[in-house]
Design a protein that fits this description.
Elements (H helix, E strand, L loop, with lengths): L2 H5 L11 E5 L2 H4 L12 H11 L3 E4 L1 H7 L8 E4 L20 H6 L4 E8 L4 H17 L3 E8 L11 H13 L4 E4 L5 H11 L3 E5 L6 H13 L4 E4 L1 H4 L4 H13 L4
Parallel strand pairs: 1-2, 1-8, 2-3, 3-4, 4-5, 5-6, 6-7, 7-8
Helix pairs in contact: 7-8, 9-11
Bound molecules: 1,6-di-O-phosphono-beta-D-fructofuranose.
Length: 258
Amino acid sequence: MATNESKTMNNVLVGRKNLCILAYDQGFEHGPTEFDEKNVDPEYILNIAREGGFDAVILHEGVAARYWQKDRDVPLVIKLNGKTAFRAGEEPFSPQLCTVAKAHTLGASAVGYTIYVGSGREAEMMREFSKIEDEAHDLGMAVIAWMYPRGASVAGRENEKEVIAYAARLGLEMNADFVKIPSAKTYEDMQWIVKAAGRTGVLVQGGKQRDNEMFLEDMKIAMRSGASGVAVGRNVWKNADPIGLSKSLIAVVRNEHV
Ligand code: FBP
């Protein structure tokens, strides 16, 4: 048995094949420009996570510390690094801002970390991630790597099958429990990406808000290709009926991919 396997045996997320995770780290990554009067309030999001039936919610440290409650809310993933939208145009780098120990103290079941694969600064992020991975697994926490192709060397190729597959594979090589990646356009492409990730589970991101049917169709393609789940935000909490859409999404993730 691999060393981290025994420590994460009872983790609520590790090994799951049908995960529905609600992402709410966009206040950091994009700023309040993504929000309206309702979804600017973290309480509104935590209510969607609970009522919508999500398996976990992704927050940065501050929102987690001030809003999330262990006995009331769904399991917590703390996003450990982040960068602002003001840095567009630079080679992307997202520094670690919260420690694994702090995430553990706050009650998180998992930690998340973004690596911009193809960035001129990818090596720095890989080094930080590698340390985080060891620390988190030692504490029995799951590790989710946001593997996003970004930067000059992959410019214009961010959504190519082989580029995403490479990013997903790196997650396996670095011992992530899950990689969170952009979804590929076709079923065949997604299947190859899932294969490349091996025993590391694949979670797809939602992306910009679009028509409900288009969004659910993309999630369906991912699940039918063998993805372990979805980790989505804007499409759900920007929706006029977020609970209704959550229920349809969960039906896709849990039932319809067999
Ligand atoms: P969405 O479903 O809203 O796209 O959220 C997924 C996510 O990975 C978030 O966790 C993150 O804040 C955001 O996308 C980053 O988006 P981008 O890097 O494309 O600006």
